[in-house]
Amino acid sequence: MLFWVIAAILTLGASLAVLIPLASGSKGGTASSDHDLEVYRDQLSELDLDVARGLIQPAEAEEARAEIARRILRLDNAADKSAARQPSMATRLVATAAVLAVPLVSWGLYSQLGSPDLPSQPLSERLAKNPADSSVEELVARAEAHLAANPSDGRGWGVLAPVYLRTQRFSDAVTAYRNAIRLDGDSAARQAGLGEAIASAAGGIVSADAQAAFEAALKLDPANPKASFYLAMGMAQEGRTEQATAVWQKMLAALPQDSAWRGAVEQALAESAKQNVASGVPAKGPDAANVDAASSMSPQDREAMINTMVAGLDERLRQNPRDAEGWMQLIRSYVVLGKADQARDALNRGIAVFGSDSEEAKKFTAFAISLGLTATE
């Protein structure tokens, strides 16, 4: 109903804007002509007074009267032409009917073809449209405006979170996913999205927070491919290449042929194989399985075994320093052994190899921070 009231007011205003000038004709023009005629008459009277006072010669007065008379004649001719151009009563009636017919016809057509009672589309449905149908900037601006007014809309946060992730606003994505989980409940998709946002914000490093989110996603959906993929990536970053490879191979066997994750898994397996070939042998730092296996040894033997592994990894990195995964494994190994100074030294050496402004250095730093370690100057 509100729509029709607004439409009626707008239509009335547009019609009056056309009808009022049409009905009034050229009254303004007639009034202007009458005013000019009065001025010329006053000029003639002033001219007679000037002659009587001797202020102007009779010959000059005659010339002036003749000029004023010519102006009066031109004014009369213009008035006649203006009157001739005035539309007749029949013409005005036809024009008025045409103007009034436009809104009547348009309203009739809209009532049959339009949809004035179509309900508004919910925010979640509007934002869930394919980005090709509307710009990402429009979606984000609309969602942010809505959430600014309705911060407790968990569904709105859930819809905005993946948009932030696609546009690489990772910190905002983390906040949005956490709000969605807090307000609208837990789900495997939201936990996996949260883990991806945390890892992306850390430069691709699967930190403890990201790992916890992925593990929560797998508890809700053991077949969630995103959570499985990133957990395997975290294993590879810790030096557990064989375990990561086993997870990716299992995923590849179970994924449908049209799955979007097949390409990512195949690429991860290829990179893992390439690193093994380049290093000649698999990395053998002391991971969690090594430590568990050494628990049955005497303290002296256990410490000797682990130190030998760490020393071997350290020596391999001195010979092949361009191994980014190896440096992260070495850093973690020293942290696990409680040797913070050696871990910090390994971190600084790794950063020096690739340069402090390199992507690898950023990953090293983020990884070390996730372990509670910082570099020294």
Automatic annotation (TrEMBL):
Gene3D superfamilies: Tetratricopeptide repeat domain (1.25.40.10). Residues 277-299 are annotated as: Disordered. Residues 129-259 form the Cytochrome c-type biogenesis protein H TPR domain. InterPro entries: C-type_cytochrome_biogenesis, Cyt_c_biogenesis_CcmI, TPR-like_helical_dom_sf, TPR_CcmH_CycH, TPR_rpt. It is found in: Cell envelope. GO terms for cellular component: cell envelope; plasma membrane. The keyword ATP-binding does not apply. One of its GO terms (biological process) is cytochrome complex assembly. Pfam families: TPR_CcmH_CycH (PF23914). The keyword Repeat applies. Keywords: Cytochrome c-type biogenesis, Repeat, TPR repeat. It comes from the Bacteria. TPR repeats lie at residues 154-187. This is C-type cytochrome biogenesis protein CcmI. It comes from Mesorhizobium wenxiniae. The lineage of its organism: Bacteria, Pseudomonadati, Pseudomonadota, Alphaproteobacteria, Hyphomicrobiales.
